[in-house]
């Protein structure tokens, strides 16, 4: 697995520091509140777990599963809802947790779908933000790292469901997916 990585962008220590920074910001912004954190599966599992451990307040969690890559290296542009949240978000402070903000299509889809349910507030936290990948307007409220327009894996990010369990974020060698 490690041999398929061109270079490591963010080490375990880098990611831990980002989780601590983001956790402190979110703790400050939601002091005295009980927000609902919605993780976007599957890539968010490691980031969401580590981030929530850095919060110093009561929080609810739920998960939504959407897909736009369908096994490739770029978004197809078609968003598929695989699993919806179970929680009523009407009147709730909601924070959507993403592993990476790339084309913006998934986030735009989620904002529209969740806004229809009348949350009190709706914010987004992403570990990785890839502004060069945008094809629609999308912005996160909390960002761990801005990343280059390369194919990244590790720490939840995958290529055909592999590499998620790498403890760092790295650039996948093009020859791995250029078949």
From TrEMBL:
InterPro entries xrefs: HGPRT, Hxn_phspho_trans, PRTase-like, PRTase_dom
Protein family: Belongs to the purine/pyrimidine phosphoribosyltransferase family.
EC number(s) reported in the record: 2.4.2.8
The protein's name in its UniProt record: Hypoxanthine phosphoribosyltransferase
Gene3D superfamilies, per database record: 3.40.50.2020
Gene Ontology annotations of biological process type: GMP salvage; guanine salvage; hypoxanthine metabolic process; IMP salvage; purine ribonucleoside salvage
UniProt KW Glycosyltransferase keyword: yes
